[in-house]
Amino acid sequence: MRRQAILIFLSVVCAGLVFAADADAAKAAPIRIVAFGASETAGYGVGSNEAWPARLEAMLRAKGYDVSIANEGVSGDTTAGMLSRLVSAVPNGTRIALLSIYYFNDWLYGVSQAQHEANVRTIIDRLHARGIRTISVGLQYFSGLPLQSDELHITAEGQASLAARLLPQVVAALGGARR
Prior knowledge:
With 179 residues, the chain is an alpha/beta fold. The protein has a single domain, classed as Rossmann fold. Helix content is 53%, strand content 14%. It has seven helices and four strands. Helix 3 crosses helix 7 and helix 4 runs parallel beside helix 6. The longest helix has 27 residues. It is globular and about 80 Å long. It starts with a helix and ends in a 5-residue tail after the last helix.
């Protein structure tokens, strides 16, 4: 009887240790943010390490936030393409999706403005249904930023400025959570 009580006690203690280890592992994971869009997100002409998602992650980390920003920008992507890759690009466990979605690529492929808007609404609705907060990286953030010679994409300096412009909104979305 005493031996059985000891075994039960040890089982409970071991289960508690496993649970505590799992909780510590979950706490250790950085906050997952995904930057989702097309060429400006991907860093067209400047490279992904100079793109605004990488710059924003560095700024957040400098402020003490344990974050990881996945750059899911695909140059030339349309909203239909974004819809098809949404689940794999923005996986479960993502806390915030930064959406940089514009009409230009859809327009190039003959997609109507109405269909574009419907696709964007579907993207947002699907993310919200999964509990993922969205922040729109709207055109207002791009105003006055320096452009590359193609007159379409922002320079590396522009990418850094865009990240700085987004920083307050992302910090507000994170709240006080540094982890």
